[in-house]
Amino acid sequence: MKVDGRHYRSIWLEEDGWSVGAIDQRRLPHEFVVARLTNCTEAADAISSMLVRGAPLIGATAAFGMALAMREDASDAGLDRAYKTLIATRPTAINLKWALDGMRGVLRPLNSSTRADAAYARADEIVEEDVTINQGIAQNGLALIEAIAARKKPGETVNVLTHCNAGWLATVDWGTATAPIYLAHDRGHKIHVWVDETRPRNQGASLTAWELGHHGVPHTVIADNTGGHLMQHGMVDLAVVGTDRVAANGDVCNKIGTYLKALAAFDNGVPFYVALPSPTIDFNIGDGKQVPIEQRGAEEVATMTGRTADGRIETVRIVPDGSPVANYAFDVTPARLVTGLITERGVLKAERAALAAAFPERLASAAE
Ligand code: MRU
After folding, report:
1. Residue whose CA is closest, atom 5 of ligand 1?
2. pLDDT band for position 356 (50/70/90)?
3. Taking the CA of residue 223 as centre, how many other CA atoms within 13 Å lie in the half-sphere pointing to its CB?
4. Strand pairing of 252-255 and 245-247?
5. If you write DSSP's letter for every residue of 124-139 in order, what string do you get?
6. Ligand 1: which residues within 6 Å by Cβ?
7. Which residue's C-alpha comes closest to atom 12 of ligand 1?
8. Rounded to whole angstroms, how far apart are CA atoms 95 and 58?
9. I need a surface site. Which of 178, 246, 256, 328 has the fewest CB within 10 A?
10. Does position 368 have pLDDT exceeding 80, yes or no?
11. Average pLDDT, whole number, for the chain?
12. Which ligand 1 atom lies nearest to the CA of residue 93?
């Protein structure tokens, strides 16, 4: 997608052929800074500090982290150490484990002298596959948007509500929830996005709004609690969110607050879709109750960071000193509240049979 008219991905192999470039998402929307990752520790820090974030991008970064590790130490011990370091970075998005298991599966049987090259090759496949998958999600989601547009008066806008950032910044390119939105916009459909700010880290206000703006997609940032009101007044045609892990039964784990949007959508008859790449399906867990929910630091809730009128980036405390704070980063939306799962292989019912029929190879590898 575009930044100031220039095409970017969120992560890439640098021209030196070994180091990794990534957009530092902690600095957006106020500063556009590119970070260079040169070893496994830096890749792991990039994930845990949320320099990069979003389930598919976490997986891609971990894959590159493994490749960087293989340059330093391609022994069995080095491979195990890199896996352990990277898997410990964040607990909820299953794409991390998917990418690392895939890397280890390719590398383990190889002679150590060939592991670094093979690691870069597999990391490149993961990156390219993410883009292809998201283009598939774009096509399948576009059909839903076009069906809604066809029921409206000619020239009327389709209003989409989204939560958190499931845009191209959360993936390698295109995004998951935003992929159909970008495609619809590029095809000339009138589309407008309600962007949930997504406290506490404000991924909606800081990242989704930023990327939609750079691509020229009309959007409006709203406080997190606004969605229900908009739905009651017919101002949302559909909600589309991303996900960090989908359980075998179709339960959806996503950024905290998603569940409340799904409840509001259900109560108001607004279609609630979840866009997901197949690596986000976890056939190893039967339902969403088994997803580990990350609890993050209190400072994310107790403070806000922003730009002052004279251009300084400042962090201020918004909670009384001494008030305890809880910071659950994700919640689970039960499958019964999900209208459909937008995948690269079509729009599926949020249920085991549909997921298993569409992705038999994922089911088979989970059973191994
Ligand atoms: O904590 P984050 O920013 O890594 O949150 C993950 C997400 O980006 C969202 O939950 C997103 O909707 C799913 S990833 C496409």
Report:
1. 54
2. very high
3. 3
4. antiparallel
5. HHHHHHHHHHHHHHHH
6. 53-56, 164-166, 170, 176, 203, 241-244, 254-255, 329
7. 242
8. 7
9. 328
10. no
11. 97
12. 6
The set of residues, in sequence order, having a beta carbon less than 8 Å from that of 365 and lying 6+ positions away, is none
pTM of the complete model beyond 0.90: yes
Instruction: List, by residue range, all CATH 1.20.120.420 domains of the chain.
Output: 2-128
Q: In the predicted model, what is the mean pLDDT of residues 149-163? A: 96
The residue type at 23: I
Instruction: List the structure tokens of 10.
Output: 């969120």
Q: What is the best residue among 254, 256, 280, 333 to mutate for testing ligand 1's pocket, by most ligand atoms within 8 Å of CB?
A: 254
Which segments of the chain are extended strands (E)?
2-3, 6-7, 11-13, 20-23, 34-37, 158-162, 191-196, 219-222, 238-241, 245-247, 252-255, 272-275, 281-282, 303-307, 313-317, 330-333, 340-343, 346-348
Q: How many A from CA of 134 to the centre of ligand 1?
A: 15
Q: Where exactly does CATH 3.40.50.10470 map onto the chain?
A: 137-367
Task: Determine the average pLDDT of the residues in 90-102.
Answer: 97
Instruction: Say whether the peptide bond before residue 200 is cis (omega within 30 degrees of 0).
Output: yes
| 315 Cβ contact list (under 8 Å, min separation 6) | 303, 304, 305
Question: 192-246, pLDDT tens digit by residue?
Answer: 999 999 999 999 999 999 999 999 999 999 999 999 999 999 999 999 999 999 9
Kindly give the interhelix angle for 55-72 and 40-48, rounded to the nearest 10 degrees: 160
Give 163-195 as a DSSP string. -S--SGGGSSSS-STTHHHHHHHHTT--EEEEE
Annotation: CATH topology of 137-367: Rossmann fold (3.40.50)
> Token pair for residue 271?
């279609």
Q: pLDDT (tens digit, 9 = 90+) per residue, 285-338?
A: 999 999 999 999 999 999 999 999 999 999 999 999 999 999 999 999 999 999
% of the chain beyond a pLDDT of 70:
100
Is residue 212 within 8 A of residue 219, CB to CB? The reply is yes
Give the ligand 1 atom nearest the CA of 55: 14
What CATH architecture is 2-128? Answer: Up-down Bundle (1.20)
